[in-house]
Amino acid sequence: MNATAIPVSPLLLQRVARGEADAVRDCIRRFGPLVWSLARRFAGPDAEDAVQEVFVDLWRSAERYDPNVASEVAFVSMITRRRLIDRRRRVDRRPRTQDLDEAPTAIHGGSERVEACGEAVLAAKVLAQLRPEQRDVLVLAACHGMSHQEIADSLGLPLGTVKAHARRGLMRVREMLVSGVDLAQEAQP
Amino acid sequence: MNPRAIELLCDRALDGLDPAEHAELAQLIAYDDVSYELAATAIDLSHGLHVREPLPEHLAQRIEMQALQMRAPARPVTPIKQKQKRSVFPWLAAAACFAIAVAALIWSGRPRPTALAPLPPAPEIELPKPTLAQQRKELLAAGAKPKTWTATTDSAALKASGDVVWDNDKQRGFMRFRGLAKNNPRESQYQLWIFDGARDDRYPVDGGVFDIDKETGDVIIAIDPKIRVREPTLFAVTVEKPGGVVVSNRERIVVTAKLSG
Q: Which residue in A55, A66, A130 has the most chain B C-beta atoms within 10 A of its own C-beta, making it the best mutation to test that interface?
């Protein structure tokens, strides 16, 4: 199953902010799968309601988008995550674990269009340098939407340790994103 | 920045804040620093380069309609009639301009929102997607050895057989089942656990939940551990509530496959 190719426009969110009707449609087509996948992971059976809330946030936030601060993919993901995390707290629902819904797609073969971003590449480099236990906590918190308490229960760690690992790891990734340091170069003498 | 503010910004990015914490953060910071949320987002995106599921068409249409409704017509602007007589307005305006200039000078000395470094443009990647059976064959061809499942006496496993293959370097693997009972995802789901020699046995790695939706139970399932597995020793599948659990009570173990140890 091939996804329809959408021309990448760095100004898509700015066009949304200007109120261009076509931009709204393009935005849904380009970011819909990303938002939907995140919502399925964080909100489980409530994903449809969550996605609608996210897009309302996105229309309202589009004018705040600054391409010098983040890529469009990162900005949209950030707005999505913020809404989903708030929503999770509001409904007090335990996030569902990532299931293997990918399997049917893979069985049918074909190709999928995957959008990467510079922030993700940098974050992956930082993650690879973290201590294993720090990385585990950070991945469970950031990628699987598990609460600190759930991570503590899952890994058998004290809650304070989980919070400390999560904070330190996140601060390290943030430092690298802010400075834009190429870790490969940093590692050289 | 205040250390407590940093703690709250980290917690907001990963776990959310309650209303009291939101209020505390607002007291501590003069501007909304999103750099921690962007860092958490980057971690998520770095780990989540998986297949994106298409947004259901009916939902896309609903969102578009919602967006159109939000674009309410602009409110007509009523021009304000200027009074002809002389007033104190010019003096007030001059005073306001001065106040703004002073405020701007003060503001320029305050910490500013962190600007993140410019990043490379987002690449578009076309990934070929072989079937799970093909991917499994590739893993076997690369030297990974399959381990046969041992079924327990659980009712779901009476006719179960199959194997599991795992490549620890690539952190990839596949489970093959034949005859494992079909489950109703609304009542229960299967969940994989990977016991890791480098971890406490009480806390095996969660390998994800899955369903058997064929009567024959003949399926291949990709293994998707949430965190890195270091020294895998045993794979076990349990029956859990929908969505899986964080820690299993191990009441219903259906199959196991021992790797070593």
A: A55
Instruction: Please give the model's pTM, rounded to 2 decimal places.
Output: 0.66
A175 DSSP β-pair partners: none
CATH of the domain at A136: 1.10.10.10
Instruction: Give B-chain residues touching A63 at CB under 8 angstroms.
Output: none
Range of the domain at A28: 12-93
Q: How far is B225 from chain A (nearest CA, A)?
A: 9
Residue where one domain finishes, among candidates A62, A93, A124: A93
The domain boundary residue, chosen from A38, A61, A93: A93
Q: Which residues of B touch A108 (CB under 8 A)?
A: 131
User: Using the 8-state DSSP alphabet, how is residue B54 labeled?
Assistant: P
For each of chain A's 189 residues, which pLDDT tens digit applies?
A: 444 555 455 578 989 888 887 899 999 999 999 999 889 888 877 889 999 999 999 999 998 898 888 889 999 999 999 999 988 877 653 333 333 333 333 222 223 444 567 788 888 888 889 988 899 999 999 988 888 999 999 899 999 999 999 999 999 999 988 886 544 343 333
Domain ranges of chain B: 3-74+85-109, 132-258
CATH number of the domain enclosing A46: 1.10.1740.10
In DSSP notation, B128-160 reads: E---HHHHHHHHHHTT---EE-EE-S-GGGTT-
DSSP string, A17-42: HTT-HHHHHHHHHHHHHHHHHHHHHH
Query: What is the ipTM, given to two decimal places?
Result: 0.79
Q: How far apart are CA B187 and CA B160, in angstroms?
A: 20
